[in-house]
Amino acid sequence: MKIYAHILMISGMAALLSSCSLITEPIDTYSDVTEGVNDAGQEVVFKDKAAVESHMQTIYRQLNDRQEHWYLDLLLIADAHSDNAYGGTTGAEVIPFENNALDASNSVLARDWTRYLEDVARANRLLLNIDSVQDASLTTTERAQYKAEAKIFRALVYFDMVRIWGDVPLIITEAPDITAENIEEVYDLYFPAQSPEEEVYRQIETDLLEALPDAPAVNPSDKTLFTKSVARAMLAKVYAEKPIRDYTKVIQYADELAADGFGLVADLNELFGTNAVGSDAQARNTVESILEAHFFPGSGNWVTWMFGRDLSNYDNSFTWAKWVTPSRNLIRAYQQEGDEKRYEQAIVYYETSWSNYYPAANYPFMYKIRSAHNSIIKLRYADILLLKAEALIMTSNLEDAAAIIDQIRQRAGLARLSSAVRTDPTAMLDALLKERRLELAFEGQRWFDLVRLDKVEEVMNAVYASDEGRLTQAYPFNSTSYRLPIPQNAIDQNPKLVQNPGY
């Protein structure tokens, strides 16, 4: 009975880890699981170069076809779970992010956990099987490049996961088919324990460093690729995080991005705007964009109508309340700074048929995805440049940090930092955090900035009293609030998973 119990448990996790079936007989036909077997009876995952390239395209399509976890839900976590936004709707899956009532039953987090692990499995499938492809037309150089791109993708996925949940299962292999003879041996592969947060960061670091030599160089006309520049941007972000923090390397990789040709666009509308008639994005592949997902007329980006209006189809799906409604606290931050340019890029007002948070006649919406044809920018240079400023502050190079912040502020039409601020380390860190908030609002950064700089309790426990539109706080933020709950359904499937403290 023990074997059958294990099989029942394993079947719920198998798709996430290996895409293998539970069939115990030899596989002799092609399917979505396997390409078949070779003459020696060994499983063939990719029968030729075309199969490898098809799988690589599947990996890239995750940026265009599955925006829920890596973009839509990430904004809910980073902006509505911070002081930037309200949940936006009355839905039970959304409200807990606003009022700090998250628990292990939240359906958004459950969806995200599953989809991130599916992404990891796709990367692993290529990494573990490409070298066995018997096709002379798949060159050594091509194999190395595809592996580099898959490692960058896996690093992107795990970076999101570890920042949300901390300790997570670190899966870099595939589980074999299950038989009565090997079930005890493969059990740990199907049900891995969580790895410590630092170990996950080290794997991300390893993937990115190993990818750098063989990843494609940046292509100024196509920022959708997992390039050397994407690896450098991710390394700068990884080295800014607590477990393996190295400010010298943050500065190094930010400088290497500048050497790759990245800079700031003159006008933020180049990043987020549409053309004059709203039929297409104003621009793609700008000098500031490091990694983005493209959407074109005829195959649009559906998430725009989750946040507001689609300017390419004005009345589409505008009959119900939207996610991630800008908070009064954020609006006041823009107004108090006199930051009109970034305010206009981040927030727009429409008349609505609902009044959950504001009067229906003048209701604010997040505005950085404003049509079905706008790109979703996953990584942009302003984020990395401000991380360099953060690293300079932390290494007591205040004047160079101030020069970077001034560069960002001057593009927004704001004055340079005062001499009193630029000579005070505490004031400089506060200025940096505020600048990141105003520059990167609704780009999935704010919550993670508060976590990285140990500001969660200070900022979030105060905002409920200062923001009259925010729902009543369910629980105070404390030292256990920095990580979100592991989904209960994942724990039910994998008894080795341990819930994060506080949930």
Automatic annotation (TrEMBL):
Gene3D superfamilies xref list: 1.25.40.390
Domain of life of the source: Bacteria
Annotated Gene Ontology cellular component terms: cell outer membrane
Subcellular location: Cell outer membrane
Pfam family, one: SusD_RagB
Residues making up the signal peptide according to the UniProt record: 1-23
Domain RagB/SusD: 325-503
Main subcellular location: membrane
InterPro entries per record: SusD-like_N, SusD_RagB_dom, TPR-like_helical_dom_sf
Domain SusD-like N-terminal residues, every copy: 66-239
Protein name: Starch-binding associating with outer membrane
UniProt family annotation: Belongs to the SusD family.
Isomerase found in the keyword field: no
Protein keywords: Cell outer membrane, Membrane, Signal
Statement: the UniProt record of this protein carries the keyword Translocase: no
